[in-house]
């Protein structure tokens, strides 16, 4: 019957044939059907006449069916009563329920992120414990602590809790172990960690744990983003879909239609009858506002602020009905109204200005609206641009907000590039914030255009953390917008440049970077080279194998403090072969660090430079390794080397070991002693005969007789040839005799001495006695008086006897007897009387008795007897018997 009426009235155009067939099953009253289609024909004709045929004919027919089948409920609907009104009112509850479930899921996911962040340290701790146990198994039983040296030990139970200390043992080959008795031993543990996993290193597994946690976080953040995008969708979800999702609630609601409720159920669940009904009922009544529109106006007139997503069906009519002051209060914070205002800014200029003014003043209380508008609003770009134009404190206010990440993300996502660039230039904190929270921003807007980030001119702190966003990674790298860090350089080297040997970055970082020949990477390093040097090269403990070419490039950066370059050079193993290509200002620093090959040519180059410092070169040459190496090369002897010779001979601060080596190697002798030298250095110059022997040089040593004596002794021939120039005391000559000059020179020295006073200088007499005993020709002009003193004060006795035999003839008999009386037994017994002294049978004693017999000091002498071969001395009985 329904189809027949449609044909009768010729109103089938625009109607769904399927809908007509299905709805006909619920209608069997011909009169009722005729009334419905008669009304439909009238209202459709009116719409066509007005040129406003913008409504759905199927929905218009459904409303007319509802009006005629349920007239009482239709009448109650205008008062907000009845079964349909109840169902429509329940729509908000269904939306809230779905939103609550979605928000609960977001909260749960956020808790999972917190749990994951707490779990990562636990997983790393567990990994360290596994490796710590493997290390302990490699150590001798009884040990309880280990260390890189015996002064820095850590107990086993603390190994896993100190990550930095523990990781220091991973590459160690040898460590110290301590036992309970405090005994220490050296243990080889090379490659101990391979017993845990031969396929993956500790660092690889550590990185996997971190990456897994990061990937999980990114995955959860993605789900949270999807749920947040889903939240505003609930507000636009059809009533029919909400009812299907909550079928248990729907069953109770439909009971209000009574026995003929199946028709209403069909119309509602098939979306032919829903909350847009007012658009069709308005054809029957005056006014185009929906119940929602009226409800909104009723609430704000009661000073109640509806939720930002409160549904408004005819925003322009609502705006027209609002008071002017409403736009400067919280009532304006409705997504539909704001969209309507921004869609015609010329028409609503004053209202928009009031909206922005309110947000400026009450920004914190507006953030709930802003959060929703970012997702559901249709004019977000215009909104943000307008707000930024009228509020110069927008960015600072956003950065201090609890929703700062959300706000900044929207600015980055929506604002035009020139506006973004301007904000970044005016507010450094904005770029810094994006840098700190880049991963969070990308998780919220994974499709973000990388050029928007480039406009902000910030550096990515951790490229690895955003590796899933490959387009952003590549763009930021190509723009050189990445922070210089060990992690970023390793990521670029391995992931972007596809290099394998990452370990080279630990031992020769700068060399490796230069070897890539990648202009972007090298340019980034050069842009902040001092930062790179301080925070990467000097931080890497093993970065000691830089190539010579890289070292030269590094130290030629004029902007870097010399102290920093000095630390870098000290870190390196290689020495510069020459000073070629090295800036003059660095010479002193290079010699201070001893990072220049020890050659005389390098020393001369340094001395010829404007930066030369005498003490620096002396300190450098004083190093034993430098001294031993450079002395393998002859010191240059040309005229250009005079200053070098002078420096060496004046190097008083140098150690005696080094000074002696250089002085010995000097090719020339100097005219005079340098002033200011320590006595030990002067002694070295004298010993190595590097100072001309002159009276002036001798007098230079006047306060140090020991050195004067040494100076003369080593130049004895010149002294003897020029003795008239020197007025030397017998005390001095006595010390000279104690040196290692030749015997003949000692004889010559003795000739300058006053031997007559030896009687008062017993030690001197003994010294001279030890010398003249070998003077077979009496070159020293010893007379009897002198001989007497020499013999009496010499020692040992054998020497005295030799001297006695030599000089006996020069003495009178009385002097001879006096000398004998002062000799030890048995010689002092050779006097007069009836006793018979006996002497040991020796050549000296034979000569003695023969001389005494010759001078009639003794009567006679004989050798031997029955039981001995001693010399028997026969004395005169009385003194008068001697002649």
UniProtKB/TrEMBL annotation:
Q: Which InterPro entries match?
A: YobI-NTPase
Record's keyword terms, sorted: DNA-binding
Molecular function GO terms recorded: DNA binding
Query: What single Pfam family name could you report for this chain, choosing any that match?
Result: YobI-ATPase
Q: Which domain of life is it from?
A: Bacteria
Q: Identify the residues that the record assigns to the YobI-like P-loop NTPase domain, covering every copy.
A: 7-84
The name under which this protein is listed is: DNA-binding protein
Q: Which organism is it from?
A: Photobacterium aquimaris
């Amino acid at each position: 019957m329904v189809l027949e009426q449609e044909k009768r009235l010729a109103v089938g155009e625009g109607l769904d044939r399927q809908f007509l067939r299905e709805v006909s099953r619920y209608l069997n009253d011909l009169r009722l059907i005729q009334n419905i289609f008669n009304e439909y024909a009238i209202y459709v004709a009116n719409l066509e006449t007005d040129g406003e045929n913008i409504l759905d004919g199927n929905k218009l027919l459904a409303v007319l069916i509802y009006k005629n089948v349920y007239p009482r409920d239709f009448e109650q609907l205008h008062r907000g009563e009845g079964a349909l009104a109840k169902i429509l009112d329940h729509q908000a509850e269904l939306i809230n329920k779905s939103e609550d479930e979605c928000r609960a899921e977001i909260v749960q996911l956020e808790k999972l992120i917190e749990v994951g962040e707490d779990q990562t340290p636990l997983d790393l701790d567990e990994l360290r414990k596994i490796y710590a146990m493997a290390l302990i198994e490699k150590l001798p039983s009884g040990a309880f602590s280990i260390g890189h040296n015996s002064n820095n030990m850590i107990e086993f139970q603390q190994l896993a809790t100190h990550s930095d200390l523990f990781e220091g043992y991973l590459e160690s080959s040898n460590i110290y172990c301590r036992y309970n008795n405090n005994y220490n031993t050296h243990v080889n543990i090379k490659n101990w960690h391979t017993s845990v996993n031969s396929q993956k290193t500790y660092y690889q597994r550590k990185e996997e744990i971190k990456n897994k946690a990061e990937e999980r976080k990114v995955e959860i953040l993605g789900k949270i983003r999807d749920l947040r995008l889903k939240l505003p969708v609930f507000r636009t979800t059809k009533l029919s879909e909400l009812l299907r999702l909550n079928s248990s609630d729907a069953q109770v609601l439909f009971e209000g239609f009574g026995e003929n409720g199946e028709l209403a159920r069909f119309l509602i669940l098939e979306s032919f009858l829903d909350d847009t009904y007012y658009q069709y009922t308005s054809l029957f009544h005056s006014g185009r506002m929906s119940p929602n529109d009226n409800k909104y106006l009723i609430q704000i007139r009661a000073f109640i602020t509806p939720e930002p997503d409160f549904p408004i069906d005819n925003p322009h009519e609502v705006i027209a009905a609002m008071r002017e002051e409403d736009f400067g209060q919280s009532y304006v914070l409705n997504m539909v109204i704001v969209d309507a205002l921004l869609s015609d800014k010329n028409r609503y200029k004053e209202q928009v200005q009031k909206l922005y003014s309110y947000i400026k003043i009450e920004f914190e209380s507006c953030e709930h609206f802003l959060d929703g508008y970012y997702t559901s609003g249709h004019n977000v770009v215009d909104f943000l641009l307008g707000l930024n134009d009228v509020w110069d404190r927008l960015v600072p206010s956003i950065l201090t907000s609890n929703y700062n990440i959300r706000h900044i993300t929207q600015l980055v996502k929506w604002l035009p590039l020139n506006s973004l660039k301007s904000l970044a230039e005016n507010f450094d904190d904005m770029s810094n914030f994006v840098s700190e929270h880049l991963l969070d921003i990308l998780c919220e807007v994974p499709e973000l255009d990388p050029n928007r980030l480039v406009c902000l001119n910030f550096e990515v702190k951790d490229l690895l953390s955003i590796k899933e966003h490959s387009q952003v990674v590549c763009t930021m790298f190509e723009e050189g917008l990445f922070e210089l860090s060990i992690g970023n350089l390793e990521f670029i080297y391995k992931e972007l440049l596809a290099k394998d040997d990452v370990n080279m970055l630990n031992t020769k970082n700068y060399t490796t970077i230069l070897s890539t020949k990648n202009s972007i990477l090298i340019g980034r390093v050069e842009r902040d080279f001092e930062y790179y040097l301080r925070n990467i090269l000097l931080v890497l403990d093993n970065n000691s194998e830089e190539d010579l070419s890289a070292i030269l490039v590094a130290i030629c950066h004029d902007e870097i403090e010399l102290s920093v370059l000095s630390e870098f050079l000290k870190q390196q193993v290689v020495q510069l072969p020459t000073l070629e290509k090295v800036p003059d200002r660095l010479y002193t620093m290079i010699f201070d660090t001893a990072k220049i090959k020890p050659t005389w040519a390098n020393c001369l180059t340094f001395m010829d430079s404007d930066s030369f410092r005498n003490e620096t070169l002396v300190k450098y040459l004083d190093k034993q390794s430098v001294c031993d190496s450079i002395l393998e090369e002859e010191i240059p002897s040309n005229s250009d080397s005079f200053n070098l010779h002078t420096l060496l001979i004046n190097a008083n601060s140098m150690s005696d070991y080094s000074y002696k080596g250089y002085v010995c190697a000097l090719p020339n002798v100097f005219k005079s002693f340098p002033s200011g030298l320590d006595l030990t250095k002067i002694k070295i110059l004298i010993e190595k005969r590097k100072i001309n022997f002159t009276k002036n040089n001798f007098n230079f040593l006047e306060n140090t007789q020991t050195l004067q004596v040494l100076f003369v002794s080593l130049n004895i021939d010149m002294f003897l040839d020029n003795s008239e120039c020197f007025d030397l005391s017998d005390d001095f000559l006595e010390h000279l005799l104690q040196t290692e000059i030749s015997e003949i020179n000692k004889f010559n020295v003795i000739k300058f001495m006053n031997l007559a006073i030896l009687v008062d200088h017993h030690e001197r007499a003994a010294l001279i006695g030890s010398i003249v005993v070998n003077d077979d020709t009496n070159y020293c002009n010893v007379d009897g008086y002198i001989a007497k003193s020499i013999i009496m004060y010499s020692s040992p006795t054998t020497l005295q006897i030799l001297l006695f035999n030599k000089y006996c003839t020069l003495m009178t008999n009385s002097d001879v007897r006096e000398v004998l009386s002062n000799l030890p037994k048995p010689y002092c017994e050779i006097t007069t009387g009836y006793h018979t002294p006996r002497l040991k049978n020796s050549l000296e004693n034979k000569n003695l008795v023969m001389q005494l017999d010759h001078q009639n000091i003794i009567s006679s002498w004989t050798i031997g007897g029955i039981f001995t071969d001693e010399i028997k001395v026969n004395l005169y009985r009385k003194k008068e018997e001697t002649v």
